[in-house]
Write a structure and sequence with these properties.
Blueprint: E1 10-15, H1 24-33, E2 39-44, H2 50-59, E3 65-68, H3 76-81, E4 85-87, H4 94-98, H5 102-110, E5 113-117, H6 120-125, E6 133-135, H7 140-152, H8 154-171, H9 174-196, H10 200-204
Parallel strand pairs: 1-2, 1-4, 2-3, 4-5, 5-6
Helix pairs in contact: 1-7, 5-8
Length: 214
C-alpha cells in the first residue's frame, strides 16, 4: 500500500489483545512522555484488565491516546494503511522474548514500519534496524525515544517499511509459506521412502560362500 499522507500528526497503531506480554503499560507511559509531540496512539483490541488501563489513560491525561475495543478483521487493513508506525509487543517476560506476534507480520504485509521489543525471536526472523525497529523491553523511555526518531525521520521510516515488506513477501506470505511446507513434506516423504526401501543385501538374500566342501 502507498505511504499515508504527510503533513499530519504521526499515527501510531497497536492492534491485538492488550495482555501483559504485549506491554500495554509501557506503551501508555511512553505516550505520556510524547504528549507534547504531534504523535497520536490508537490501541485497538480487547484489554485483559480494561478498567486498570482506562484509569491509567485518564490518570496520565493521555489526550494523545485512543482506545477502541475492537474492529472487524475485514476492516483492519484500512487501519494499518492509515497508520505511520505499527507496534509489536513490549513486555519483558520470557514469553514475550520467544514470540513474534501476528500483528508484526500483518503490519509488514501492508508495508508499514514496525517497532517492537528487541528479542531473540525477532532477531531470528528479521534484520533489526533494516527490516524493522526495536527497543528495550519494558522501557518506556527507550521506546519513546525510538518512536520520536521514527516519527521525525520519514525517509528512514519509509526505507525500513519497504525493506520489512520485502522481507515479509520473501519469507512469510502465502506463497513463501506454501513453498516451505511443500519442501518440508518432500523431505519427509523422501526420508520415509529411504527408510522403507530394502537394502541390497536384504533383497538378494544371504551371500553364498564358494569353495569345495571339506
Amino acid at each position: 500500500m502507498p505511504p499515508p499522507p504527510s503533513g499530519r500528526p504521526c499515527k501510531v497503531l497497536c492492534v491485538g489483545k492488550l495482555i501483559p506480554p504485549h506491554g500495554c503499560a509501557t506503551i501508555l507511559h511512553a505516550a505520556a512522555l510524547l504528549i507534547a509531540h504531534p504523535i497520536h496512539f490508537t490501541l485497538i483490541g480487547s484489554v485483559q484488565d480494561g478498567p486498570t488501563v482506562r484509569r491509567l489513560v485518564a490518570g496520565l491525561g493521555l489526550s494523545n491516546v485512543t482506545l477502541i475495543d475492537w474492529v472487524d478483521y475485514e476492516r483492519l487493513a484500512g487501519w494499518y494503511a492509515d497508520s505511520d508506525i505499527c507496534l509489536g509487543i513490549f513486555g519483558d517476560s520470557d514469553q514475550a522474548n520467544r514470540v513474534v506476534p501476528n500483528k508484526v507480520y500483518q503490519a509488514l504485509a501492508v508495508g508499514r514500519a514496525v517497532i517492537t521489543r528487541d528479542s531473540s525471536a525477532i532477531r531470528e526472523m528479521f534484520e533489526v534496524g533494516e527490516e524493522l525497529w526495536a527497543c528495550r523491553a519494558g522501557d518506556p523511555d527507550d521506546f519513546s525515544r525510538q518512536i520520536l526518531k521514527f516519527a521525525s525521520d520519514g525517509p528512514m521510516r519509509h526505507r525500513i517499511a519497504d525493506a520489512g515488506h520485502i522481507a515479509f513477501c520473501r519469507s512469510f506470505d502465502i506463497g513463501a509459506t506454501a513453498r516451505r511446507i511443500a519442501s518440508r513434506l518432500e523431505s519427509l516423504v523422501g526420508d520415509r521412502a529411504k527408510a522403507a526401501r530394502p537394502s541390497l543385501a536384504t533383497r538378494r538374500g544371504p551371500l553364498a560362500v564358494e569353495g569345495k566342501p571339506e
